[in-house]
Structure formats: structure tokens, C-alpha cells
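Amino acid chain
________________
===
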Amino acid sequence: MHVAPPAPPDHGRLWVQITLLIATLVTTTLVGGCHFYSFAIDLATINQLPPEPSTQSLLLAPMFWLSGLWYSLTILAILGCHEMGHYLACLHYGVDVTRPYFLPAPLPLTGTLGAFIRIRSRIPNKIALFDIGIAGPLAGFVVAVPALFIGLWMSRIDRLPEDASNLMELGEPLFFRVAAWLVWGSVADGYTINMHPMAFAAWFGLLATALNLFPIAQLDGGHISYAVFGRRSTMITIVMIGVAIGLTFVSSSWIAWTVLLVIMIVMMGPTHPPTMDEDEPLDRPRLLLAAVALVILVGCFTPAPIGPFLGTT
């Protein structure tokens, strides 16, 4: 009797994944070029500058695209390492999973909606679920932290213009504040850090890490929460959805993300799907890692990510 060899694992259509990666490289480099153009301007003279060059002249300038790589390569490294952390953990536990899919988007600040993998089989147990859930945020965070320090080191301190109403203010997560203080110390009144595009990519990477670590249903934090608390994680999901809705009243920049969360909960439900073996408990090192994930969530979170400039520093 002849037995057919097992089919090789299907990790998704490689040509689709490569095409999306190239498209995301283009959109993030485009956005990165705009970030670098803004960074190169002395903020103190921003209101006295002549009209900006045309879009066509910028897009045809090789240096525009080269300078955009500071942002694009950094954010792709953070997002890519995040997803590869999930992917390699899945392979370790024999879980059917695709390679990462990047999501290009012509958004003015990010140039991307992030990346994702598709898990196509049930998770064997809570230990595997925990390791798969936490591997992504840890891998992305490990890349984002040195990028943040390097990006801040390449940033500079600029005097604010007399009229700063046309400037945008980014919320500063705790880790960002600590890193900025270590690099620049206390910034005097009337001055601000003009962020290098690499620093902005790291800031976005920290925010993305915080969003993924929210203990909600199918998010990375939801996997960790279910591995730790089991079915009680459903109540945590419901509470955190309420928190997300409340954040929309703090800053309108939360609206789009919260709408996506609500759609996810409506379509998939607030209850995390069970693993095949629900009885194997987490060991002490993994429970400590869960506490580390909570610390990373708090340190990467900011209640108002984007808003009009209101401060004086």
C-alpha cells in the first residue's frame, strides 16, 4: 500500500505577500519623504516660508524618496518583526499559519494600516496561545526601543513659532517621555523636539504595540488575557470595549480604531475561542511575562495620540 506524502504547509500566496510588501514600502516611503521634508524645516520660521514646492516636483526628486526610507524601513522593521514573532511561534507549535501580509494605505501620517498573519488551525493549548500572542508585541517592542533612541538622537530642539496653531501635537507615551528626557533632558519653554522621521516611526511602533496589547478578544492582548484568565477574559473584553468607546470622547483620533473594534466584536463575538487543551496552566515565568506585557501596554499607551498643538514645550 502506498501512502501519499503529506502536503507541504501552505503559508499563503507568496506573490501576494511580496506585492503587498512592495506596495507598503512605496506608500510608507512616500509618507516618510513628507515627514523628512517637514523635519528639515526650522519650526521657528515655518510661518515665514515661501509656498511649498508642487507635489510633482517633490515626487520626481530622488532625495525625497531616499529621505523617506528613514521612516519606511524603520516602521516596516517594527511591524515585520512583530508579525514574524507570531509566525515563528506558530511554526514552533505546529499551528497552520500564513506569512505576514502588509497593508499599504495612502494615509497622511502612517502610510500603512499595519500587517497581519492568518492562523488557520486551532491553538493546541493555553501555553501555545500565550507564546503566540506575546511573541509579536515583544519582538516589535525590541525593535522600536533602539529605533526610538536613535531617532530622538537625530532629532533636534527647535524654537516654536509665535503662532503654533497650525502644528500637530503627538501624545507622548511614558516610554517616549523617558527616552526623550534621557536624550535631550528638560526642554525649555517655547521650544519643542522636532522629531526625525525615525523617531516618528518608533512613536507609531509604540502606539501600535499598545493597541495590539489591549486585552480584547482576538487582539494579541486578548490571546494573553484568555491564556491567563480563561473564560473570565470575556468580561475583560467587554470592559475594555467600554474603555475604548470612552477614549473617543478624550480624543477623536480613537474613533476609527474603536469602530473597527466594535465591528470585530459584533462579527466574532466577545468570547475568545477555546484551545484544544484547556487544562494545562501557565507556569510562573509566563505569568511574569504577562505582567511585563501589562507594563509595556501602560508604557506605550497615550490617551490622546494626535491632536492640535496646545502646549508651550
